[in-house]
Design goal:
GO molecular function, one term: copper ion binding
CATH architecture of the largest domain: Sandwich
Distance between the termini: 83 Å
CATH class of the largest domain: Mainly Beta
Organism: Pseudooceanicola marinus
Helix content: 10-25%
Order of helices and strands: HHEEEEEEEEHEEEEHEEEEEEEEHE
Protein name: Copper-containing nitrite reductase
Strand content: 25-35%
Radius of gyration: 23 Å
Number of strands: 21
Subunit structure: Homotrimer.
GO cellular component, one term: periplasmic space
Shape: globular
Strand order of the largest sheet: 13-12-15-19-17-18
């Protein structure tokens, strides 16, 4: 009898077969059935509906007195994605978006995720939460084939921002991650965020920026290749991946995902929390025209935030958070300050801020005019 797993592997393509077989041998499949169940019957259950980044679902900044079980549903979707510049990615996604949606809970809460692998998918998937404890972050307990579902619950014991990603084993891990399968979870302290003095901090809005590096192959003429499905894309994509030179470095799945008509919006005087994740490579966010008033560079809220940063560092495989109060109106560029990656490869977002200009903070004393170079500007030279 042909099993679902065998059918999935056959459809995925001959090139992927040895990799999938190796993946099955690489990671331990844990059996936790002998452990006594946790009695959480006294805890309140709430359901949160995930929404597409850069927005984040409704949540409290200060938790109620008692921990809760916070339920989420997430569907794995394999699909072709237009990433701009004439390139199409055979993507693997959480909930159909790149990055996957951000979850928010509080320290001491229980995260309960119902994970669905759509029947039309070709690949086996799972989820590894960097916020979780044991079982490869849940990866050993969530392996699902197409048409299967699973439920994982873990206790959020450490406050901070954390990456989650697919990690089905062996060479499949990097391929799934750079094909779009990563996201973030924010575990807030129960009493909310605090500054360097321990005083309460609130934000008016939160934006989730997920940065991805893509490795889309080109043909002999230099044009981006396009594939029928994710299995067919694997051999050529692997060759580009192993060269470690991305074809694209983008925010939220494509060039221009957060610029133009898709730009973010805020108002003068608002405090905005930027959560930034990168599951695979180091990056360095920078807000042109602004700063990081408070920056949890490693994303961990038990550590006091740094202040007044111009650029901060997000390690590959982590998420960080930065709070900024917008003091001037205008268009701000939020970029990866490897400016080659920002300008040429796509890692740029725009924030449009409404308000009234403050000349005390910046003033154009004189608009550009021509000057007499024979007499003026000489004293500017050393």
């Amino acid at each position: 009898m042909l099993t679902r797993r065998a059918a999935m592997m056959g459809v995925a393509g001959i090139a992927a077969l040895p990799m999938l077989a190796q993946a099955a041998k690489t990671e331990e499949i844990m059996d936790t059935s002998m452990a006594p169940p946790a009695d959480l019957s006294s805890l309140q259950r709430i359901k949160r509906r995930l929404i597409r980044p850069p927005m984040v679902h409704e949540h409290e900044q200060v938790a109620p007195a008692e921990p809760r079980i916070v339920e989420f549903e997430m569907q794995i979707v394999e699909k072709e994605v237009d990433v701009g510049d004439g390139a199409f990615l055979q993507a693997m996604t959480f909930n159909g978006s790149i990055p996957g949606p951000m979850m928010v809970v509080h320290e001491g809460d229980y995260v309960e995720l119902n994970l669905y692998n759509s029947p039309e998918n070709l690949m086996q998937h799972n989820i590894d939460f960097h916020a979780a404890t044991g079982a490869l972050g849940g990866g050993s307990l969530t392996l699902v084939n197409p048409g299967e579902k699973t439920t994982l619950r873990f206790k959020a014991t450490r406050p901070g921002t954390f990456v989650y990603h697919c990690a089905p084993g062996g060479p499949m891990i990097p391929w799934h991650v750079v094909s779009g399968m990563s996201g973030a979870i924010m575990v807030l302290p129960r009493n909310g965020l605090t500054d360097h003095n321990g005083d309460p901090v609130r934000y008016d809005r939160v934006f989730y920026i997920g940065e991805n590096d893509f490795y889309i192959p080109r043909d002999a003429q230099g044009n981006f290749k396009r594939f029928a499905d994710v299995g067919e894309s694997y051999p050529d994509t692997l060759e580009v991946m192993n060269g470690l030179i991305p074809s694209h470095v983008v925010f939220n799945g494509k060039i221009g995902a957060l610029t133009g008509d898709n730009a973010l919006h805020a108002a003068q005087g608002e405090k905005v929390l930027f959560v930034h994740s990168q599951a695979n490579r180091d990056t360095r966010p920078h807000l042109i025209g602004g700063h990081g008033d408070l920056v949890w560079e490693t994303g961990k809220f038990n550590n006091p935030p740094e202040r007044d940063l111009e650029t901060w560092f997000i390690r590959g495989g982590s998420a960080g958070a930065a709070l900024y109060e917008f003091r001037q109106p205008g268009v701000y560029a939020y970029v990866n300050h490897n400016l080659i990656e920002a300008v040429n490869l796509g890692a740029t977002a725009h924030v449009i801020v409404e308000g009234d200009w403050n000349n005390d903070l910046m003033e154009q004393v004189q608009a550009p005019v021509e000057y007499n170079a024979a007499y003026e500007g000489k004293t500017a030279l050393p």
